Amino acid sequence: MKHKGKWIAAGVISAALIGGGTGLAVATAGGDDSEKPITGSALERASAAALEHTGGGKVTDTEVGDEDGYYEVEVTLGNGRQTDIHLDKDFKVISSSADSESEKNDQD
Questions:
Q1: What CA–CA distances, in Å, run from 64 to 14, 19, 54?
Q2: Against a cut of 0.85, is the pTM above it?
Q3: Which of 47, 27, 39, 61 is nearest to 93 (CA)?
Q4: pLDDT tens profile 28-80
Q5: Mean pLDDT for the chain?
Q6: Signal peptide position in this chain (predicted)?
Q7: How far apart are CA 91 and CA 49, in angstroms?
Q8: How far apart, in whole angstroms, are the C-alpha atoms of residue 31 and residue 87?
């Protein structure tokens, strides 16, 4: 009987350790999902500023609080290339960067 109790205790401890490790892995893996899209009138203003800067295209992604500016707007141009437009909080262009071919292929 003493051996049966030890096996049950070992099973409970193992399950707790495995479950805790899984929770930690899930918590750290979800770190990249913190991107917050631009919404409402800010989306309209940011999109207009980005499209004016690129001379056209289609807004394909947005983000508030980007590391390179207050707003980031991704524009896909007519040739299929993507450009990230970084805006300040007043919707003025700070910088822009074209995605490289390797970045484009990584997303496929």
A1: 42, 34, 19
A2: no
A3: 47
A4: 334 455 789 999 999 999 999 999 999 999 999 999 987 888 999 999 999 99
A5: 76
A6: 1-27
A7: 7
A8: 24
